[in-house]
Amino acid sequence: MARYEAERADAFRRELRPVAGAAEAVESVLAEGVAVCVASQGKLEKTRLSLALTGLDHLFPEHVRFSAHAVPNGKPAPDLFLRAAARMGTQPASCAVVEDTPSGVRASVAAEMRAIGYTADSDAEALRQAGAEPLRSLDELPLLLGLPAN
What we know:
5 strands
């Protein structure tokens, strides 16, 4: 496992790039006073590396990063999202989750959170069938959330 994680980290360092519009979308949401977090199936070390390599780490400080490794059951169970909501001090029903996998969408639906399926590199129909509202571009996120467009 350690060798796999080291090889993956090396591949990330060579190839990982931020998703187009990600920083701007998060900044727009934050500017409206809406809290954001990352709730990942991976270990916090992977999240830390991914955010640093993509230049998004300043938008998600350590205290708003959550890992499925800290809960009894990972996605598609709701545990991770429920933990994130509790730690963020909010009710699940007031949360929106942006996901690109059917298991993540199912987890957000099970947590009774609004599921938004990011379809740019994912199977839009699979995300929709899992219960997500489709989102083709992160530029559309603020409007989909009912926030002013910047």
